[in-house]
Every structure is written in structure tokens, then in C-alpha cells.
Specification:
- The protein is an all-alpha fold.
- It has a single domain, classed as Urease accessory protein UreF, CATH 1.10.4190.10.
- 69% of the residues lie in helices and 0% in strands.
- Helix 3 runs parallel beside helix 11 and helix 4 crosses helix 8.
- It is globular, with a radius of gyration of 17 Å.
Length: 226
């Protein structure tokens, strides 16, 4: 059973109030709403489920590897997977998002003074810090178990997408919470899938999502950052 302290730290790390700017990004969802692909609770569920499967094939397994690397204080492995993730961001919007949020989270952890010198040295050696790297670093510094940290990251991604739908479709608050509750099992499946993948099975292939992100970068009227 997870210790109370670890659970509380996980809740703080996965909280939407964490000051890293997650609420300012839609991850392509605003463009999907604009073109009518997401227009109600059911289409929102389909969108988020499919987006979660993309995360489960790439971002989540990279986070899993980064958690193990930070736990082993393996700077080379942290650097390798960080560079891999940054290189995989195939639109300017997606790249800017992960670098900005990664920087903000890593700065927050440093200012909270919860990381030991070894973790601080690893982070200081990184030329760019994407969000999965910063999240793994924070989880290790806060001593959050790896499985819980992975679930926490996946939940925070899904919750942010739900909040975008509540604000922009728009959905009602009850509809949003019903949507989030219905996705719990998909989050569990995504976490198990991410842990089981071998390195050569990782894939960020999602051309439709990339096109939506590029459309969002030039969308005439938008709320979320690009």
C-alpha cells in the first residue's frame, strides 16, 4: 500500500493547480473543437481515449524509462531519453509546450529544495528539459513510487483534456466529471501498456494530431497557447 506521505506528494504533483502552465495548452484539442470533430461528451471521450493511446505508445513509456534512470542516477540514460522526446515533437507548438512546462516544473522543484545533489547535477547537465524529464525528476525527488507517478502523469493529461472540453465545447461540470470517471479504466490500461513496451516498440505516429497542432498554430481565434 502506498504510504500517506507519498500519496499526498503524488496528489500535489498531479494537481491542476501546479504552476507549470498545463491549463494554457490544449494539445491539438482546440483545433479539433474548432473543426467540429469534438462537439459533445461522446466525441470528447473518443478524442481523449485516442489521444491517450498515443501517449501510452510514446510519452508514457519514456517517462517510465526516465523514472528508472533517475532512480539509478544514470545521467546518460536521462539525457538520451530527454533528447529522444524533444526530437519527437513534430510541431513548433508541441515542442514549445513540453520545453516550457518542463522548465517550469524543474524550476519549481529546485525552489522547493526537495532534490538531492545528485538529481540536481543530472538536471543541470541537460541542454533542454522536456516535461516527462521534469516530471520524472520531481517524482524521484518527492519519493513517489514509479507506478503511481506514471498513473499520476496520465491522469493529469486526461484531466487537462477534460477541462479543455468543459471550457471550450462547452460541456457542463457534471458532464466533465462523468467523462473523467469513465476514463479511469483507460488510464490503467495505458499505464500497463507503457510499462510493457520494449524500446523498439515505441511510436509517436499520430499524423492527424500533428496536422491539428499545425492548424492550431495559425488558427484565427484561439484561447490556448501555440
Amino acid at each position: 500500500m502506498m504510504q500517506t506521505t507519498s500519496l499526498l506528494r503524488l496528489l500535489q504533483l498531479a494537481s491542476p493547480s501546479l504552476p507549470v502552465g498545463a491549463y494554457t495548452y490544449s494539445q491539438g484539442l482546440e483545433a479539433a473543437i474548432e473543426e467540429g470533430s469534438v462537439s459533445d461528451e461522446n466525441s470528447a471521450r473518443i478524442w481523449i481515449t485516442e489521444a491517450l493511446s498515443v501517449v501510452a505508445d510514446f510519452e508514457a513509456p519514456i517517462l517510465w524509462r526516465l523514472l528508472k534512470a533517475f532512480s539509478a542516477h544514470d545521467e546518460a540514460v536521462v539525457t538520451s531519453w530527454s533528447e529522444c522526446f524533444v526530437a519527437s515533437r513534430d510541431t513548433a507548438e508541441f515542442r514549445a509546450e513540453t520545453i516550457q512546462m518542463g522548465y517550469s516544473l524543474s524550476r519549481l522543484v529546485a525552489e522547493l529544495k526537495v532534490a538531492d545533489d545528485s538529481l540536481l547535477r543530472i538536471m543541470a547537465s541537460q541542454s533542454e528539459i522536456p516535461l516527462p524529464t521534469a516530471f520524472a525528476y520531481a517524482a524521484e525527488a518527492l519519493k513517489v513510487p514509479h507506478e503511481a507517478a506514471l498513473l499520476g502523469m496520465l491522469f493529469s493529461i486526461v484531466e487537462n483534456q477534460m477541462l479543455v472540453c468543459v471550457k471550450s465545447v462547452p460541456l457542463g461540470q457534471v458532464s466533465g466529471q462523468r467523462l473523467l470517471l469513465s476514463l479511469h479504466s483507460a488510464i490503467e490500461v495505458a499505464a500497463c501498456h507503457a510499462q510493457a513496451l520494449d524500446d523498439d516498440e515505441l511510436s509517436n505516429w499520430a499524423p492527424g494530431l500533428s496536422l491539428l497542432s499545425m492548424q492550431h498554430e495559425v488558427q484565427y481565434s484561439r484561447i490556448y497557447r501555440s
